[in-house]
Amino acid sequence: MSDMLKPSRRAFLRGSAAAAAGLTAAGAARANGPDPLITEVQDWAVVFGDGVDATPYGLPIQYESDVVRRNVEWLTADTTSSINFTPIHALDGTITPQGCAFERHHSGAIELRKEDYRLMINGLVDTPLVFSYADLERFPRENHVYFCECAANTGMEWAGAQLNGAQFTHGMIHNMEYTGVSLRTLLNEAGLEAAGDLSDKWVYVEGADASSNGRSIPMEKALDDVLVAFKANGEALRKEHGYPVRLVVPGWEGNMWVKWIRRIEVTANAVESREETSKYTDTLADGTSRKWTWVMDAKSVVTSPSPQAPITHGAGPLVITGLAWSGHGAITRVDVSKDGGKTWETARLAKPGEKMALTRFYLDTEWNGEDMLLQSRAMDETGYVQPTKAQLRDVRGYNSIYHNNCIQTWHVKPNGEAENVEVS
Ligand code: MTE
Ligand code: CO
């Protein structure tokens, strides 16, 4: 096929839009000239495709090569203690493929064989225990879908609109189906009689990497829904997500989801480690700091259109879509505004919200081809409504970093491009 005859995707879509509007495909073709994609025999229809031995483990097709994690060079001094971002602007549905799910390491992703893996439970327990990977596989398993959001997600946006893309402003999040053993099961195996009254006890969890990323978790949460997980989305955890075993702490800040978990100590007090004092702590407007902020409050973002996912068609039908989540439970409603929060329309949830998991929303709308100040606002089952940036700053001031769950604004221009902006 000569290049001149190659149809643009846009022309093809014009044809399908015409068909949807009630014109026959032939009518559309008459209007635009013959459509070579329909009238010519294409290369792919006359040759054999790849055999079943070509790709023992499949990767995305080359045309999707831009759907990848990205980091922001100036954010961190080096890439071993750093972060990259999930390409949420290019994904749909709710499950994040492991291969493009954000990574956050404090001392790099380590390589640990299952055979070399050990998990110790010690401290105020009846019998200190050490489990091998094979031991963990013999306890009853559970499956749950949960989001994991780094407390630093959206953290660069406190002082003003900063990074131009949903991937960078909101991409420190992923949502996977985990398979694992409940932490309750393992703690009961070690026995908690020795701990006495459990209501004021803690567990201190640490990883096998150089940073150890030690965190204290109140016993109430540890006995509730925390998982010691070894599979994500059906397959082994990827190295960067904690292979072979990580902790899953539903609804709570990502920092507590200790990867390569090697030790769980039952303690009488919180350890007050680096990760829960000087880091992951919220500065308030009056200059004091809040001691603990574990639960991730309700939040949402429009993933498309957005700066990396501009509108590529003219006025008319437009699908606005995004993600909503809450660490307090299920998302019950998401509203979308096209005018910077003056008026709101209720979006359609793809499925009823699930506790501590991402919810996909859609607003199937008509675009008039004019400027939009696109926003989304999430509500969860507790009645909590996602705050505006101004409301959050009233409490937290301008110098905060972590736990920024404010409403995001994209300025969508008549040419379809979008930009990260702030509205007052
Ligand atoms: N666990 C260990 N052992 N080391 C780490 O550096 N980073 C934490 C947490 N668990 C970290 C860790 C942080 S800050 C986050 S947000 C999550 O892991 C990120 O998990 P992910 O890399 O699978 O996305
Ligand atoms: Co984090």
TrEMBL record:
Keywords: Metal-binding, Molybdenum, Oxidoreductase, Signal
Enzyme class: oxidoreductase
Signal peptide: 1-31
Domain of life: Bacteria
PROSITE patterns, per database record: TAT
Gene3D superfamilies for the chain: 2.60.40.650, Oxidoreductase, molybdopterin-binding domain (3.90.420.10)
GO biological process: sulfur compound metabolic process
Cofactor(s) needed: Mo-molybdopterin
InterPro entries: Ig_E-set, MoCF_OxRdtse_dimer, Mopterin_OxRdtase_euk, OxRdtase_Mopterin-bd_dom, OxRdtase_Mopterin-bd_sf, Sulfite_DH_SoxC, TAT_signal
Annotated Oxidoreductase molybdopterin-binding domain residues: 112-271
Domain Moybdenum cofactor oxidoreductase dimerisation residue range list: 290-409
GO terms for MF: heme binding; molybdenum ion binding; molybdopterin cofactor binding; sulfite dehydrogenase activity; sulfite oxidase activity
The EC number(s) this enzyme carries: 1.8.2.1
Protein name from the UniProt record: Sulfite dehydrogenase
